[in-house]
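Reply to dn_fold:

You asked what the input looked like. This is it:
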Amino acid sequence: MASAISFLEPTLEKQLKGHRNSITAAFYNPNEQQLATSSLDNCVLLWDLRGSMRSYKFQGHNEAVIDVSFSPSGKYMASASRDKTVRLWVPSIIGSTGVFKAHSQTVRSVQFSPDGTKIITASDDKIVKLWSSHKHKFIASFVGHTNWVRCARISNDGSIIASCSDDKTTKLWNLENGECIHTFKNQKGYGLNIAWHPSGCYIAIGTSEGNIKLFDTRTYNLVQYYKVHDDAVTKIAFHPSGSYILTASKDGKMKILDLLEGHQVFTLCGHNGAVNAVNFSPSGDTFASAGDDKLVCVWKTHFTEMSYDTKENMQLNQMTVPKSTSQTTKIRSQIKGKHQVVK
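and this is what came back:
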């Protein structure tokens, strides 16, 4: 397998100011011309990335906005709030197009399905729910968690939902029949954020203990494990190539992990205080970060990409990944095809 020839460090291109409280999430419009951010200031800001950097403010939620997401077409945004509702917006001066009460407690995450016809939500009421995006009709509940559900994300083919909870489990759900396919149990800490690898074969979980865990969703094996943060991992994002993970943490740092080589390549310190949001643009050329300092940072990626001959562009379960960056860490490789066990 080919490896990267060199790495160029990301550069900070812009800092955007507008929110009046901590920023909780950031999401690019698929057209890459806009960036949406949500905040504890009860608002969503939509940033024009084409030069002016001006922002539109979307107001309507009565309490903090915890998550924001674009539809695959880029024609709509959805925001999730502590006020127990999800709001739909047109990303222009038109603004709000609808609101519905999604849960009985705080809505922690919201996401459109890959075809844009459904919306998935997760809440402190311990439930993951599925809705139609057109008329906001309730479709199904996914019940099984015994504590707050921090995040729920749909696989790229729209067939599986992954959710993580304060009950120290991560669950995979069958979207069609609502059944729990598998439960991953965390011995320490709990998952705060989930991301699907572009291949659809792996999920990454960022935990309250500062760890990043990658699981194979076909074999349910732990295939990579990183201990790189000193505090909770708040957000994780895969680069579109599938070669890298970008992480954010309450420790005020961001990390870039090379999944093919199995180690950390960069530590970024662009914020004062906790970093609560990171996300790559659809092309991967840029990424955004935001946090408690109320700033949105836009970075140029500068990564050297790799070329692959197969559709499934990586085999994570054949890699050796250290538990930490310590040079004294000893890694014992197990049978090929299984995850690496750190002793």
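Residues 1-5, 306-314, 317-343 have pLDDT under 50 and may be disordered.
Hope that clears it up.
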